[in-house]
């Protein structure tokens, strides 16, 4: 069963961080999956990504000189309450100087809440949301705040978001797009650009493909996220 996603979830998440930053009443010590003021909303449609690992599982990029300085781990102290060790680990290198860490912690807890909501509705959609990057920073949030969802992150690491993948990024196996748009299309090419397979789907229904050993490039557009079949792992 498919569930629609609200456009702009990433913007909403960023707004939540700024709003929480201005409040000194945020709680930083309440469990590993604190409620986020109601059920998390479903996430937005994917923006096509360039070749590379799933967006929800990539390592943090190095801080640019223009990025705000982060508070040292030993100076991470919430305005009220206290932090668990796991929460402190999550917050390390994530809290801009002068910001209440509870505001940053809230974003991680909201990520956990969103995954919890999505997996209850449809597990494949939850994995697809990580693959596409709609659930942002899923890996660190799951690692430190809600390890019960580690299986979702592990599966997402083997999937493909929309985009083009080449060379070592190609992983042979069976894949399914569980929630494609009506403009879903894909192409697999081999050595010398020889087309191995190509197709499209205007129905919005799940589709399945096989990425052969001979594939050298895989391009997907409008298919949202390709999830690996069990035998791929």
Describe the structure.
The structure is a single chain. The chain has 233 residues and is α+β, with helices and mostly antiparallel strands. It has 6 helices and 6 strands; from the N terminus they run H-H-H-H-H-H-E-E-E-E-E-E. The protein has helices at residues 9-21, 85-91, 101-121, 123-132, 138-144, 150-156, and strands at residues 160-166, 173-177, 184-189, 195-201, 207-211, 217-228. It is elongated and about 60 Å long.
Q: What does the secondary structure layout of this molecule look like, with pairings?
A:
Layout: H1 9-21, H2 85-91, H3 101-121, H4 123-132, H5 138-144, H6 150-156, E1 160-166, E2 173-177, E3 184-189, E4 195-201, E5 207-211, E6 217-228
Antiparallel strand pairs: 1-6, 2-5, 2-6, 3-4, 3-6
Helix pairs in contact: 1-3, 2-5, 3-4, 3-5, 4-6
Region (Disordered): 24-86
Signal peptide: 1-19
Keywords: Signal
Main beta sheet strand tally, sense and closure: 6 strands, antiparallel
Q: First CA to last CA: what distance?
A: 24 Å
User: Over all CA atoms, what is the radius of gyration?
Assistant: 19 Å
Structural class comes to: alpha+beta
Query: Which descriptor suits the 3D outline?
Result: elongated
Provide the low-confidence segments as ranges.
1-61
Strand percentage:
15-25%
- Proportion of helical residues: 25-40%
- The topology string of helices and strands comes to HHHHHHEEEEEE
Mean pLDDT: 76
Strand segment tally: 6
What is the count of DSSP helices, taking H or I runs of 4+ residues? 6
